[in-house]
Specification:
5-stranded parallel sheet, 27% strand, FAD/NAD(P)-binding domain, alpha/beta, 2 domains, 27% helix, 346 residues
Length: 346
């Protein structure tokens, strides 16, 4: 294929989807510019301990991909770079990059693949769950960092071993008023995966998962759910009404209603993990608008096709890693086909 700018691709976002897309493009002989705003590749997956259902270390997935990208002669990586402007003219996309500590860069390409992913929403919009008020309440991503640093056992804010832990599901997901109306797709299995890791550390740890619905639609997910139940993880249907502390008490108490048996519960906890929803960043919304793609009321891009624009992975909607990888390959193939058709019509 020609090496002209009309036959190269801008891949925006250096997480697992953007990396896989760039590698798949390289395998087709297509030059890719991989643009990442952070100082390193990896995205959210780079902040995760292990992945489900395989329980592989996330670093074992990311590391080989980064090594392959660094060796590639057809992938140019732009780190610490943000897209400031993006426009299309006569079938060619022009992007202006702002580079931290360096001059701006102008790039041209025949296709754009947006793979900026999603970010965890701010849980402080639901103050009754105690995030920011109690150090023993943390987000799922913060808990992943804790697990990465202490796979032999976890300790609470006071330094004592955690013996009672509660996961609260759908924090800011599947709600209309405070948060996001859609399911964030990975929260159920994220909690189940980490519950299994904790049970492997300490089979006697008391773990509860408070849920609206358990959604285990992926390959091997239902098996993991059954394994967690067999290991003694408690699944309680019904989000709590609040997380608080009794006067002079050391532990948190999580209060709510089990909607299956219509009984109120109060669960003591050394640690509470909020499985927060995933949303588009403001920067990603601006990029979507620059590409003339419509945005739905929930912040996700609509399904209208724009010539030369492909939206991959969680940028399109929340997805697990396997689905992101599959869509990365599909978008790379779609971009190759689009540019081939365009060159054939000249």
């Amino acid at each position: 294929m020609s090496t002209g700018t009309e036959n190269q691709v801008l891949v925006i976002g250096g997480g697992v989807t953007g990396m896989r897309t760039s590698l798949d493009l390289a395998s087709l002989g297509i030059r890719a510019h991989l643009i990442e705003r952070d100082r390193s590749l990896g995205g959210l997956l780079g902040q995760v301990n292990r992945v489900f259902p395989s329980m592989r270390l996330a670093s074992d997935i990311i590391g080989p991909m980064i090594s392959e990208i660094e060796k590639s002669e057809t992938i140019k990586v732009h780190l610490s770079s943000e897209v400031r402007s993006l426009e299309e003219h006569d079938g060619l996309f022009r992007a202006s990059l702002s580079v931290e500590g360096g001059p701006d860069i102008e790039l041209e390409a025949g296709c754009i693949i947006l793979a900026t992913g999603l970010r965890p929403m701010d849980p402080t919009i639901i103050p009754e769950f105690g995030y920011g008020r109690y150090p023993e309440v943390m987000t799922s991503l913060e808990f992943e960092a804790l697990l990465r640093s202490s796979e032999r056992g976890i300790k609470g804010s006071g330094g004592a071993p955690v013996k009672k832990l509660v996961f609260i599901q759908c924090v800011g997901s599947r709600v209309e008023r405070r948060g996001l109306p859609y399911c964030s797709a990975v929260c159920c299995m994220g909690a189940i995966k980490n519950a299994l890791i904790l049970k492997d550390m300490d089979p006697e740890m008391d773990i509860s998962i408070l849920y609206i619905d358990i959604r285990t639609h992926g390959k091997g997910w239902e098996d993991a759910y059954r394994q967690a139940r067999k290991a003694g993880v408690k699944f309680i249907r019904g989000q709590p009404s609040m997380v608080t502390k009794r006067p002079r008490a050391e532990r948190l108490v999580v209060c709510g209603e089990n909607t299956l048996i219509k009984e109120l519960y109060e669960i003591d906890a050394d640690l509470v993990v909020l499985q927060v929803g995933l949303e588009q960043t403001l920067d990603s919304r601006e990029l979507i608008s620059m590409l003339k793609v419509g945005i739905r009321g929930d912040g996700l891009p609509d399904d209208e096709q724009v010539d030369g624009v492909f939206i991959a992975g969680s940028s399109e909607s929340p997805k697990d890693i396997a689905s992101c990888m599959a869509q990365a390959g599909a978008c790379a193939a779609g971009a190759a086909g689009y540019m081939l058709r365009k060159s054939s019509n000249k």
